[in-house]
TrEMBL record:
Organism this protein belongs to: Ensete ventricosum (Abyssinian banana)
Alphabetized SUPFAM superfamilies for the sequence: Nucleotide-diphospho-sugar transferases, RING/U-box
Segments for region (Disordered): 90-110
Protein name: Cellulose synthase
Family membership noted in the UniProt record: Belongs to the glycosyltransferase 2 family. Plant cellulose synthase subfamily.
Length: 1062
């Protein structure tokens, strides 16, 4: 359309339409320059369209790109603008590419500004003429978009009056409201016209220096009906100045350098974006899922209508098991319907919140580290975790580390004291040379070229020095561990001779010690260090301390009194920060001004060190972290997994998620003739945090406890610390909030903090937040954010899985069960499916054990669960098998999971299901119904005798009995079935194949378990031993069955007659 050399900007998705009229007063004359444009990629001229306008590839930033480069970038490149990274939309005449079908509506940009019956050719052929003639705009072709009857002329440019010629909220009738474009430096704000008396007072900044600057200028919104939506979006983008800055004559202290305005175009861009799975991968996956549902219908139709009468009990058992497996599959499958990935922009985060020469505006973060028993959780591992936290790439003054010692061990206290001293040397070394990871044990253990990308001349010398310092530090820690092996009869004493308060683990006062971050403690370079606080909550007999969940809630209260950061990161003692920018990755989601307000936590995947190459017991759990969690991220967010998670403190306090503004239906829209240009400022001023409303003190104390300082801190959404209160007073209040009776008659553990009622408090806590309407985010940086150690021994691994399954059973039998809890909240249905699956899966152990027993019974008895298979049944069975395989293959494809990881996950699902899940089910029933408590074993965190030495260490536990029984039972069944078939002839081999298939399926899934109980085989591979035992058993039974020493005679048996015939 002809715009008269004026720029018409807008966005269909944003519902915006702005006509920007250039000011002719001091318009530079660049006729020669504007007559041609050069492509910034190939250097060719940009073509001129039929409308005598240059081809514009990106309507967001107008970066000059020719049509050839535009089409090549969409076809072969990233499909995004090189400057603003916005995805290219399809222009008319350009070929479609992958992803165009996912755009809403018409994707031709020539219709970008076509709203309703708006006729651009009739109305905007000459904007100046149309604005000057009576009724030119708004009376005919814009009748459906609002009425603008009053026109004023300022500096030769016609500007629409948003007040319709009437005085509204302090705007005089002769003043017009200007919408200053973002490139003028005011961030797209609404200001009265006399703020800029002449066009010369505004310095234009052209995106393209070769482009005629006359196309930039002032503009007005060209409709009234959509102004409310436009206001809301502008407010969310923080593009407005405070109303107090306007004094009626001009800007009062607000200029181009205003701190509250965005710095540049890049800083106003989103801090992250979603990356949907390519349609070529996800669409076939969804089709296969639907086909699998249909095939399941045919399968059960056949199974139910064709019972096996001579083996009715076996048939009925198998059908019940298969129905349960189908329900479990549905609960697990459909939450993976919308998988997504995410990408963060750390550079934009720095541009927005870390302005050069000014203090950082990044939010404070409190980091929680929890430990219990230093003998099972080695102090050296905890020390490495703390060191990686203290050296994190984040402003020092905004990081506080709290270590919870729930075992009140003096060994942990002394080790933390040594760690604080070594941190004064380690932290400056990490930040000076920018090393990764920043846990010294794992940094020095890397088998890589540590000189890569290092150019500082002092690096080698200082690395050798700090490595020697760390080795001496390890010796001191090992000496403390050795000394702690023998506890004196009178208990431990401190250096001043006073008894250690935690000598009695079950009866001791609370303890708090601030090691770093106070009294001017500096590192060796003279720089400040993050705060490091040791906390051991009070414990007394007769109180339920709620294990880890209670310890985490104590840390929440202590940190609120001392530092009160708005965000909290919790990690286990064996999970160190592997990516020093992990906190910044999380802030890209939590501090996003548009979408961050509803994010309750950012969950990172768990990655592990020290696992054998084959990952025999599926410790990495890749299928869950790379497939299931990505699927949940596309719904309402991933579940909380207990570590590596950054929380919003307000979400932990049990507050509801902020609700988006709902559009109010305007009454008598046609009768209204005014659009109030400054209403948005009054709305912005009137907005207050929900937590700042007046609430009765008794209600707050009932919810949060009897601590005025802590209760006051909960009302501060962006963090707050008591001013004018001495540090000693803060510590005194902190001691009060960790007393064992503080939570009595409060909502702690019920609606506030980590939720009690299960040993797996992580599932309950995340479930409660999602029920309050919050959403979570799954962040997978290229460099893993956190790494930890996992129990690679079979017995330890089974005990770990037992603990998780026991917690799920407790939740299933509690009032917080997702099957019946939280329907009035904001939990989405597919997210609820996932939570139901997370608490139901231990019950699958019963049908799984029964189904794994059926093959052996069928082989020993000669019966089978399926009647004689017809052609129809063969087609159904084959189709079901193919659909299961196709679903798994497509999941591995879009999730990036290898077939080895997928197969190990399938194997351990059976191993854990027939052992840990089964035992956890009975223990959970005893605990809930009979009140019998069950203690779980804390898994070992490391090995000392060589690499993977614990992998081959055999530890007997009762959890080994069920899978061992099933394994030997199926091996015996296979031997007996083959022997019987050989003895009876070829006719018996046909029915045998189906039975053998099920039995071998069980044996293959239990094979890692068999390797575990066999121990380490230095010379002979385990597979050879297994098959040797199997074949020797078959041959032995055949030998006995055939009995070759006795000749067989098919004729009649002759015996000596006893009668004398003579």
């Amino acid at each position: 359309m002809d715009t008269g050399r004026r720029l018409v900007a807008g966005s269909r998705n944003r519902n915006e339409f702005v006509v920007i009229n250039a000011d002719d007063f001091e318009r530079p004359k660049f006729a020669e320059v504007s007559s041609r444009q050069i492509c910034q990629i190939c250097g060719d001229d940009i073509e001129v369209l039929v409308e005598e306008e240059f081809f514009v590839a990106c309507n967001e930033c107008a970066f000059p790109v020719c049509r050839t480069c535009y089409e090549y970038e969409r076809r072969e490149g990233t499909q995004a603008c090189p400057q603003c990274k916005t995805r290219y939309k399809r222009h008319k005449g350009s070929p479609r590419v992958e992803g165009d079908e996912e755009e809403d509506g018409d994707d031709d940009l020539e219709k970008e500004f076509n709203f309703g019956n708006f006729d651009s050719k009739e109305t905007l052929n000459d904007p100046v003429t149309n604005l000057e003639r009576p009724g030119g705009v708004g009376q005919s072709s814009l009748s459906g978009l609002g009425t603008f009857n009053t026109i004023v002329q300022t500096n030769g440019t016609n500007i629409l009056l948003l007040t319709d010629g009437e005085e509204v909220d302090g705007i005089s009738p002769d003043h017009h409201a200007l919408i200053v474009p973002p490139y003028l430096g005011f961030g797209g704000q609404i200001i009265p016209s006399n703020a800029t008396q002449t066009s010369a007072s505004t310095q234009h900044r052209a995106i393209n220096p070769n482009k005629d600057i006359s196309v930039y200028g002032y503009g007005t919104v060209a409709w009234k009906d959509r102004i409310d939506e436009w206001k809301r979006k502008q407010l969310n983008k923080c593009q407005y100045i405070q109303h107090e800055g306007w004094d009626g004559n001009g800007f009062d202290g607000y200029g181009l350098e205003n701190d509250e305005l965005p710095m540049s175009d890049e800083s106003r861009q989103p801090l992250s974006r979603k990356l949907p799975i390519a349609s070529s991968k996800i669409n076939p996956y969804r089709i296969i899922i639907l086909l699998r549902l249909i095939i399941l219908g045919f399968f059960f139709h056949y199974r139910l209508l064709n019972p096996v009468l001579d083996a009715y009990g076996l048939w009925l058992t198998s059908v019940i098991c298969e129905i349960w497996f189908a329900i479990s599959w549905i609960l697990d499958q459909f939450p993976k319907w919308y998988p997504i990935e995410r990408e963060t922009y750390l550079d934009r985060l720095s541009l927005r919140y870390e302005k050069e020469g000014k203090p950082s505006e990044l939010a404070d973060v409190d980091i929680f580290v929890s430990t219990v028993d230093p003998m099972k959780e080695p102090p050296l591992i905890t020390a490495n975790t703390v060191l990686s936290i203290l050296a994190v790439d984040y402003p020092v003054a905004k990081v506080s580390c709290y270590v919870s010692d729930d075992g009140a061990a003096m060994l942990t206290f002394e080790a933390l004291s040594e760690t604080s001293e070594f941190a004064k040397k380690w932290v400056p070394f990490c930040k000076k040379f920018n090393i990764e990871p920043r846990a010294p044990e794992w940094y020095f253990a890397q088998k890589i070229d540590y000189l890569k990308d290092k150019f500082h001349p002092d690096f080698v010398r200082e690395r050798r020095a700090i490595k020697r310092e760390y080795e001496e530090f390890k010796v001191r820690i090992n000496a403390l561990v050795s000394m702690a092996q023998k506890v004196p009869e009178e208990g431990w004493t401190m250096q001043d001779g006073t008894p250690w308060p935690g000598n009695n683990v079950r009866d001791h006062p609370g303890m708090i010690q601030v090691f770093l971050g106070h009294d001017g403690v500096l590192d060796e370079e003279g720089n400040n260090l993050p705060r490091l606080v040791y906390v051991s909550r009070e414990k007394r007999p007769g109180y339920n301390h709620h294990k880890k969940a209670g310890a985490m809630n104590a840390l929440v209260r202590v940190s609120a009194v001392i530092s009160n950061a708005p965000y909290i990161l919790n990690v286990d003692c064996d999970h160190y920060i592997n990516n020093s920018k992990a906190l910044r990755e999380a802030m890209c989601f939590l501090m996003d001004p548009i979408s961050g307000k509803k994010v309750c936590y950012v969950q990172f995947p768990q990655r592990f060190d020290g696992i054998d190459r084959h990952d025999r017991y599926s410790n990495r759990n890749v299928v869950f972290f790379d497939i299931n969690m990505k699927g949940l991220d596309g719904i309402q967010g991933p579940i909380y997994v207990g570590t590596g998670c950054v929380f919003r403190r307000q979400a932990l306090y049990g507050f509801d998620a902020p609700e988006g503004k709902k559009k109010k239906k305007a009454k008598h829209r046609e009768a209204s003739t005014q659009v109030h240009a400054l209403d948005i400022f009054e709305e912005h001023r009137g907005q207050e945090s929900e937590s700042s409303l007046l609430v009765p003190r008794e209600k707050l104390e009932k919810k949060f406890g009897q601590s005025p300082v802590f209760v006051a801190s909960t009302l501060q959404e962006n963090g707050w610390t008591a001013r004018g209160v001495g540090f000693a007073s803060c510590l005194s209040e902190a001691m009060h909030v960790i007393s064992c009776g503080y939570e009595d008659k409060t909502d702690w553990g019920k609606e506030v903090g980590w939720i009690y009622g299960s040993v797996t408090e992580d599932i309950l806590t995340g479930f409660k937040m999602h029920s309050h309407g919050w959403r979570s985010v799954y962040c997978i940086p290229k460099r893993p954010a956190f790494k930890g150690s996992a129990p690679i021994n079979l017995s330890d691994r089974l005990h770990q899985v037992l603990r998780w399954a026991l917690g799920s059973v407790e939740i299933f039998l509690s009032k917080h069960c997702p099957i019946w809890y939280g329907y009035r909240g904001g939990l989405k249905w597919l997210e609820r499916f996932s939570y139901i699956n997370s608490v139901v899966y231990p019950w699958t152990s019963i049908p799984l054990v029964a189904y794994c027993t059926l093959p052996a019974i069928c082989l020993l008895t000669g019966k089978f669960i399926v009647p004689e298979i017809s052609s129809y049944a063969s087609i159904v069975f084959i189709a079901l098998f193919v659909s299961i395989s196709a679903t798994s293959i497509l999941e591995m494809q879009w999730g990036g999971v290898s077939i080895d990881d997928w197969w190990r996950n399938e194997q351990f699902w059976v191993i854990g299901g027939v052992s840990s899940h089964l035992v956890a089910l009975f223990q959970g029933l005893l605990k809930v119904l009979a009140g019998i408590e069950t203690n779980f074993t804390v898994t070992s965190k490391g090995a000392d005798d060589g690499e993977f030495s614990e992998l081959y260490l055999f530890k007997w536990t009762s959890l080994l009995i069920p899978p061992m029984t099933l394994l030997f039972l199926n091996i015996i069944g296979v031997v007996a079935g083959i022997s019987n078939a050989i003895n009876n002839g070829y006719e018996s081999w046909g029915p045998l194949f189906g039975k053998l298939f099920f039995a071998i399926w069980v044996i293959m899934h239990l094979y890692p378990f068999l390797k575990g109980i066999m121990g380490k085989q230095d010379r002979v591979p385990t597979i050879i031993i297994v098959w040797s035992i199997l074949l020797s058993s078959i041959c032995s039974l055949l030998w006995v069955r055939v009995n070759p020493f006795i000749g067989k005679y098919d004729g009649p048996v002759l015996e000596v007659c006893g009668l004398d015939c003579n």
